[in-house]
Amino acid sequence: MFVSRKLNKAWSEPDTKRAESQLRALAKQLEVKHPGAAASLLEGLEETLTVTRLGLSGSLLETFKSTNPIESMISIARKVTGNVKRWRNGKMALRWTAAGLLDAEKRFRRVKGYREMVILRRALYRHHEGLASTRRSA
Fold first, then answer.
1. What is the pLDDT of residue 1?
2. What pTM did the predictor assign?
């Protein structure tokens, strides 16, 4: 429970630097008794804060903070590919994976906050431009 509260607090923090500081402090607390959890938290730190860094809010933020849509898609694809009894080659694996993803596509729902996608597009553009300018100055 302690860890959940701290994670949720950090993830709901609108300031990226403060959120990162909170997550690093949590990883340090976990290091002794749960080194694997601490390492996992630090390993995914950049990705964890991506939506915060982009400045998303509302329904769109809630949608992109969750891995549920991706996990659902993978689960459906896994069920479809589970029907194969003998894999012959890599091309067969690619075809069956594509078939599984196409099957998953039929079950996709509209993204919560889809009307705010223009905000996401602008945020991604700004983020990309920031990365490009950093590379040019380096």
1. 63
2. 0.62
Tokens 């479809």 sit on residue: 80
List the chain residues with pLDDT less than 70: 1, 138
Instruction: Tell me what pLDDT residue 65 has.
Output: 76
CA distance 108 to 91: 26
- What is the DSSP annotation of the chain? -HHHHHHHHHHT-S-HHHHHHHHHHHHHHHTTT-HHHHHHHHHTHHHHTHHHHHT--HHHHHHHH--HHHHHHHHHHHHHHTT-S----HHHHHHHHHHHHHHHHTT--PPTTGGGHHHHHHHHHHHHHHHHHHHHH-
Number of neighbouring beta carbons within 10 Å of residue 79: 12
In the prediction, which pLDDT does 61 show? 80
pLDDT of 52 reads: 82
